């Protein structure tokens, strides 16, 4: 894994239906029915260390952090496992929730169930636009890449053989769902964004269920993040397309960090501490890739009950690039994909980024500052 780098009158079409779907999708982990996400239990003390009683609390006694059980979310997984966030937060404790996909995490952020979250770009855009710019800010990057279209080579011979096939994504409106719908549209294949019906049948299914459906023959392929993509390859699938090949320089935001605007305003010191933990974790992952892989596997084992074999973990880890840079120039393209897919009307993303605290942290660490591509505070 290497280091990288006017509000519309209508926003998300059928937004109520999108939220309803998000609420019904089970989140990853053994406590999938609990609230918006699953709180880690067997290794909760290791993953989210208790506040250090010898250190002064920051302005909040607790910070609630959300993320996914994916290798594309290596930063929060490793940072929590290694206690790097706890070290920066001092006496402020951490509570975690783990999600299957972004729409449910946005719902949790809006409800105050989490304060800060690692999440994909499409749900970030949706959450910002639907709230008319009031709900969240993107405050950092986290990862690039790590997404592939994996197919059953017996049923799909190539990228011109998708018509009539069944392709899965993790959730309606999540980042991979938007990417697939946009790609199909570019190939002239028509799909109803809401129902998934059309020239290709798009099936929305939980990441942890997709490999089983694939092996059963219920799916012909899936556009998914790591480690699900590598699981499908290990089950006999073939990578038909690595999404990074569709982007300039092979870089695109797959995971960024968002914060509730209310929490940012009331507790900037806590947000800065989390960002210090994030930046230091990314440096630690780069310096300690083997240990980082073990941390990720330990967390995934707790969530799913089963560790990943090396033939899955190694490529899943290698395919993701950790970065502090939010790759802001790719965010507008992600929004354009949502528009083309039929999930968004034209949007104004001006103000979605606030990289002030991140750049403060980067400067203190002797690292170059990052840009917001003109999408910073209005």
From TrEMBL:
Record-linked Pfam families? NMT1_2
Sorted alphabetically, the Gene Ontology cellular component annotations on this record are: periplasmic space; plasma membrane
Q: Where in the cell is it found?
A: Cell inner membrane; Periplasm
Gene Ontology molecular function: ATPase-coupled transmembrane transporter activity
Q: Fetch the InterPro entries from UniProt.
A: ABC_SsuA_sub-bd, NrtA/CpmA_ABC-bd_dom
Predominant place of localization:
membrane
Q: Which UniProt keywords apply?
A: Cell inner membrane, Cell membrane, Lipoprotein, Membrane, Signal, Transport
Under the heading SUPFAM superfamilies, the entry gives: Periplasmic binding protein-like II (SSF53850)
Tell me which Gene3D superfamilies the record gives: Periplasmic binding protein-like II
Family per record = Belongs to the bacterial solute-binding protein SsuA/TauA family.
Name used for this protein in its record: Lipoprotein
């Amino acid at each position: 894994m290497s280091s990288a780098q006017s509000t519309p009158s209508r926003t998300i079409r059928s937004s109520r239906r999108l939220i309803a779907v998000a609420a019904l999708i089970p989140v990853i982990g053994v406590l999938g029915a609990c609230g918006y996400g699953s709180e880690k239990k067997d290794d909760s003390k290791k993953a989210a260390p208790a506040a250090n009683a010898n250190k002064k609390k920051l302005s909040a006694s607790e910070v609630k952090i959300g993320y996914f059980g994916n290798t594309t979310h290596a930063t929060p997984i490793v940072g929590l496992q290694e206690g790097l966030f706890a070290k920066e937060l001092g006496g402020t404790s951490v509570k975690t929730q783990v999600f299957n996909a972004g729409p449910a995490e946005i719902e949790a952020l809006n409800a105050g169930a989490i304060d800060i979250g690692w999440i994909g770009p499409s749900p970030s855009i949706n959450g910002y636009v639907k709230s008319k710019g009031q709900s969240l800010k993107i405050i950092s990057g986290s990862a690039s890449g790590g997404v592939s279209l994996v197919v059953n080579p017996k049923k799909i011979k190539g990228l011109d053989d998708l018509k009539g096939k069944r392709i899965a994504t993790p959730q309606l409106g999540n980042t991979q769902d938007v990417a697939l719908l946009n790609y199909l549209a570019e190939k002239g294949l028509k799909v109803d964004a809401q129902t998934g019906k059309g020239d290709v049948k798009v099936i929305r299914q939980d990441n942890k269920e997709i490999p089983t459906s694939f092996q059963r023959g219920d799916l012909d392929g899936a556009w998914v993040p790591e480690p699900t993509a590598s699981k499908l390859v290990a089950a006999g699938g073939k990578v038909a397309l690595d999404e990074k090949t569709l982007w300039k320089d092979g870089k695109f935001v797959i995971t960024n960090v968002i914060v509730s605007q209310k929490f940012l305003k009331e507790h900037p010191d806590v947000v800065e501490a989390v960002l210090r933990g994030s930046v230091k974790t990314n440096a630690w992952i780069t310096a300690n890739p083997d240990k980082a892989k073990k941390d990720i596997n330990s967390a995934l084992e707790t969530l799913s009950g089963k560790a990943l074999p090396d033939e899955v973990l190694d490529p899943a880890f290698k395919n993701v690039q950790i970065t502090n840079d939010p790759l802001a120039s790719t965010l507008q393209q992600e929004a354009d994909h949502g528009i083309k897919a039929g999930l968004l009307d034209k949007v104004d993303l001006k103000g979605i980024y606030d990289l002030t605290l991140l750049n403060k942290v980067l400067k203190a660490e002797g690292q170059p500052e990052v840009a917001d591509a003109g999408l910073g505070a209005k």
